[in-house]
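Q: Convert this sequence to structure tokens.
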Amino acid sequence: MDISQADIAVWPLPTASTRIRGGGLTRDQLFRRLREMAGRANLASGLAALTEYVGASHYLLARYDLSQDNGLDFVVCSDWPFDIVRRLSGIVTGLHAKTTELEKCLSVLQPMFYLLPDDIDLPRGISREYCAVTFNVGRLRFSLMLLVPEDVILSQESLRDVTLLAGYLASFTTRAEVRHDRDFELTDRELECLFWIAEGKTSEEIAVILGISRNTINNYITSVMRKTATRTRSEAIAYAVRNNLV
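A:
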């Protein structure tokens, strides 16, 4: 389903926001609960504790780099209602397609609010605005998305705590639970082309270096940009540098 620009609204978290607590955890209680869970590496329970602490109602942890694909493979762990998650896939895909590589880099650890379309049915009392914050665990980028009750305003301080701790929890699960398909999706030839465009070479020059046609080089570079969700060679180079590919 195509998502129009009107379906998505984005703005930074207000600087003076405060959190209305409703039976949430204190920081000490949160740390104690997470210490108890660390040995079990229970991602769902840990994310539920973070959600309670910040005053949100539902969590969704996503692989940011897989979110431009069709389907639900980008979801790592979630307690969002399934119908909303299914619609979210198209919304996030549309949003990321409009975001430059520089904007993606600058958005790390910066909480943002997004607006869900009016035709999505939400649980009673849940705001149509949801909060999303991205963070890195090694070479992988994640996005934590939070549904929020209508009477709750999230604080920046609490969101900073939650973001750092979500990265801590995700670090225990990346080996066993998270797909790494995209880390190895670029072929050797595509990586070669990516290296040479990062060195400032044109398609014609790369064709001479690798001994293949210019059209073939352009096809490889187009494939690289599709797989990395970048729109220009410069963005592809920025992606490669950020992910230690060149």
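Confidence is low (pLDDT under 50) at residues 1-23, 175-184.
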